[in-house]
Amino acid sequence: MLDSVLLKKIHKDLTQDFARNHLGALSISIAVIVGAVIFAALAPLAMAQVISGIANPHSQPAFYIAAFIALKLLGRALSDVRWRVVNPLLYTATYQYCRTIVQRINATYKANNGFAESAIQVSERTAILSKMNVGSMSVTHGLFVIIFPALIEIAIVFGVIYWFIGPTFIAYFLIAAVILYIATHLGREREVQLGGTSYRCDNEVLMYCGEILANSKLNREMGADAYFKTQLDGLIHSSLEQHQLLFTQKYVRATYLSLAVCFAYAAVFAWAGWLIQEQAIVASQLFLLVVYLDRVLAPITGASSAINNIQHGLISIRAGYDLLDDLLRKSGNEPFMHGQQRWKRVLLSDVAIFEVQDDSLHVGMGKHIRLTGASGAGKSTCLRRIYKHLIDGNQIDHQRIHYLSAQVEWIKGSVFDNIALQHPEIGTDDVQRVLDQWRYGFGNRALGLDQAMEDLSAGERQWVAIVRSLLRGPRILFLDEATNSFDMRTEPQVWKYLLAHISPQTTLFIVTHRGESPIGVDHEEVVCGHAEGVGQVVSTRPVS
Questions:
Q1: Quick check: 131 and 207 in contact, CB under 8 A?
Q2: Residues 213 and 343 reside in one and the same domain
Q3: What is the pTM of this model?
Q4: Residue 116 is part of a domain; what is its CATH number?
Q5: pLDDT tens for residues 219-239?
Q6: Residue, of 340 and 319, whose pLDDT is higher
């Protein structure tokens, strides 16, 4: 569970940067926790003085009672301050961690050719990310709010016990050590194994729920509800069986712990009785022995529960990191990226249009290149190869290489939000101009800046994607059937607008479902699938 690789990843992504950026808030939180523990732990000393002075007419019980109440109040007050200081800090850390993981998942899209994932893949990753979010909260809360205060309290208790009974406090220490061992080790390995299996089963249930949601149209049109229900019921049944094994193991461990705690109380009372008989301690010291035993055992048993939460949190976090590693591993082994092209890199050229020299594909700057071929031949695959190598080559800023496909990528929000995306050089006037072009040029209705994207038609969304790219001045623009939702009247006008608004230095790659090229091209490649793989360029048609 606590392997060094996992801990290094957590330290890097969750604690290192956060601690450096929130040092002040972290210091205040530590001071609050330590103060709350110290005041609460010292309160029994004042009550022991009250008990000790009951038979002494010169004692001042009122003073010690007031001290007891004051210490209790301060301890409770600082403990309550945790809600305003500590918990917000933990949530801030968790959300920063979540943001970091999202950014790292998005970074894998570079290796995965930058294309949108299926709804099922997104739902799977969202399920993992959700568990990583909850797992990070379990880990940080368990360590910071439970285990850290418990260690401080145990240290204080040992100090007090040593102060009034001397070196024999070692017996107290041994009792605490035995309880701690039972709480943290006995049967823990088996529980960790069962916890990992239970987590995987639980995640399969959540991911399949995502798959059902991603196929709601199939469910509605094809009556697949019975099939989905049967599959989901099977996964739920398996998950419940695994969780039952886990809960049984937890019950066994909890029983061992409860018996050990009862034995510890019995041992301390017997020991205290012998000390009283030997007149080695008085009533107030007996009170401290019993009270501080409780203040040792309570943190230990609480730490045991925290360790359970931390354990499952780490399992969740490990699964998330496994996902990230798997994404990178798959991206390096995509079948169309190996052994299916005659070139290993793509270079922009001032001379060539589209030709292979040695192991490099040279593409002319500002040239228009069209790929043709039968359906399934691999036109899109070939474009993705080129896109992949351009991204990997770092010859051009990645934000100047745009790939537009038939599937428009959009976010929930307004038309303006989807076009500008907070770009510092794209304002409302720029967006309004392109929307007016749609309204008065070749669209069928007006599009407003504040109009919701979900209210747009497929063709309108493709228009938004095209102008979003044009406003950013791409150096390389891939159009992979990116205009197939326009009608036959609108599509030629969109192409005309596109040609009028791209730079002469922009290299354009085109794949369309039309028989003829929508614009004039400098070069045309025929792509044909065969036994050795799709996406092979088998002939060239230079365009005069």
A1: no
A2: no
A3: 0.72
A4: 1.20.1560.10
A5: 777 788 888 899 999 999 999
A6: 319
| Beta bridge partners of residue 477, listed in sequence order | 402, 508
Q: Residue 523: beta bridge partners?
A: 369, 542
- Cβ within 8 Å of residue 39, ≥6 positions away: 71, 72, 74, 75, 78
CATH value at residue 478? 3.40.50.300
Q: How confident is the model at residue 56 (pLDDT cuts 50, 70, 90)?
A: low
Torsion angle (degrees, nearest 10) of CA 310, 311, 314, 316: -110
467 contacts 410 by C-beta, under 8 angstroms: no
Tokens of 210: 């995502």
Confidence of residue 539 (pLDDT cuts 50, 70, 90): very low
Report angle CA 262, 266, 271 to the nearest 5 degrees.
150
The beta-carbon contacts of 247-253 under 8 Å, at least 24 apart in sequence, are 249/187, 249/190, 249/191, 249/194, 250/191, 250/308, 252/187, 253/182, 253/186, 253/187, 253/188, 253/191
Identify the pLDDT of residue 533: 43
CB 478 within 8 A of CB 402: yes
Question: What CA–CA distance (Å, rounded) separates 276 from 266?
Answer: 15
Write the pLDDT tens digit of every residue in 497-522. 999 999 999 999 999 877 778 888 99
Domain span at 16 = 4-333
Count Cα neighbours of 533 within 13 Å in the Cβ-side half-sphere. 15
Among 355, 408, 404, 410, smallest CA distance to 510 is for: 404
Q: Is the pLDDT of residue 532 over 50?
A: no
